[in-house]
Amino acid sequence: MGKPTGFMEYERQNKAAEESKKRIRHFREFYTPLSREEQEIQGARCMACGVPFCQSGQMLGGLASGCPLHNLVPEWNDLIYNGNWEEAYARLRKTDNFPEFTGRVCPAPCETACTCGLHDDPVSIKGNEYSISENAYTKGYAAACPPKVRTGKKVAVIGSGPSGLAAADQLNRRGHLVTVFEREDKVGGLLRYGIPNMKLEKQVIDRKIAIMEEEGIIFCTDCNVGKDVKATELLKKYDRVVLACGASNPRDINVPGREAEGIYFAVDFLKSTTKALWSNNMELKDGTYISAKGKHVMVIGGGDTGNDCVGTSVRHGAKSVLQVEMMPKPPAKRAENNPWPEWAKVCKTDYGQEEAAAVFGDDPRVYTTTVKEFIKDKKGAVCKATMVRLESKKDEKTGRMMMAEIPGSEYSVDVDLVLIAAGFLGSESYVTGAFSVEVNERTNVKTVPGEYETNVKNVFATGDMHRGQSLVVWAIREGREAARQVDLSLMGYTNLSVQ
């Protein structure tokens, strides 16, 4: 490495975030990147590990440890330290089709597995990745590179989320003729309508899609396969079909009063805001979206989507925001049973929670708590919620620990808008039914472990539709692996890489 002692000489430096009370006035990304020189110094902190766990991409304790894409992190860290940014981008693109996305929205399991993080702050891998990608666009070498030879084979990809886009990109590189079908009005899937602008501005997606179109990929929007287009038609027209429709069924909650007006799934709330912004020049216009303005908002769910709902509600001008989490508050530091390089199960405060605390004076989260009942007003709209506190107890029948209600701990809160961010189940049944593909007990498309071809010949499945709800990096990896298997089935051999 160019600077073996860099981790001892330089401190970690992050992108500067705009102050909370200022950034809630807009829906744009709010981080200021480091200068080129500052980012090169961050590359110098990579410490030439004997075994770079940052790129391992293993499952430890049920969670990712290291990068699932096996990004060549030490290589491009060293390259930017030495000022070779173009080669750094080339190395990054070898394993990651979309660093412009992952450099923004990935929770960075690479950093929790960074060796430097054992006794100091980890290397700013995500920040380095972001800068490498943005520099490539600024300098003009994030450009289209159409394949020189076409195979004549045609592949249909159903769904334009990260997994579908990755599969399409890989198959197009190989020279196959790829058409991507998307039921929404714009390409991007989860990236477009599941992640708010503050984390991923949509022009970032658009500029990448423009490159992919220039490389020869065809995108068909407003085309709902299984409804607008029959599966049988696609199977006749295309040599292979890749299903990448995501895990789009939101998980509901079984609570008395759930039918009240004013209770929505988080994805519908976030989607309505994104669509309203793009329809009105990035300004919200009343009546065009699900509004939290002047309302007591309750967000059910403590994950990333729940945090996005908190941040979006604050920007709407909510009167109050409460985020409800059933599980106990995580510790401030790693517990003994959560050692490095496992994903660190520690308490983190994300941007939405920071903003709510700045506006309302307190962290919006309550732990070991759930909703017992929703109360409706005379018009049938939710107006209150009965809450109850929980404790961990052993189930006498199964012997497993479970969260149980604490008798007498009920209390009431005012609420006008409820957003359910309890995760997702499998894909919608009309898609799997249209292709007659088998699903498992979790309604994910069933394949042989490690394989992507379904029970229907020439039909493959990938991403959240295949593995269940997961991270964008896992979706990209699945898309790459599925593309490799599709290519092998078409050509009898493959030179597509996964890692």
UniProtKB/TrEMBL annotation:
Q: Which GO terms describe its molecular function?
A: iron-sulfur cluster binding; oxidoreductase activity, acting on the CH-NH2 group of donors, NAD or NADP as acceptor
Task: Tell me the pathway.
Answer: Amino-acid biosynthesis
Cite the FAD/NAD(P)-binding domain residue spans from the record: 153-479
Under Gene3D superfamilies, the record lists: Alpha-helical ferredoxin, FAD/NAD(P)-binding domain
Question: What protein is this chain from?
Answer: Glutamate synthase (NADH) small subunit
Pfam families in alphabetical order = Fer4_20, Pyr_redox_2
Write down the species: Muricomes intestini
Task: Please name the GO terms of the biological process aspect recorded for this protein, alphabetically.
Answer: glutamate biosynthetic process
Record keywords, A-Z = Amino-acid biosynthesis, Glutamate biosynthesis, Oxidoreductase
**Domain Dihydroprymidine dehydrogenase: residue ranges:** 23-138
* NCBIfam families recorded: GOGAT_sm_gam
Q: Which InterPro entries match?
A: DPD_II (IPR028261), FAD/NAD-bd_sf (IPR036188), FAD/NAD-binding_dom (IPR023753), Glut_synth_ssu1 (IPR006005), Glutamate_Synthase (IPR051394), Helical_ferredxn (IPR009051)
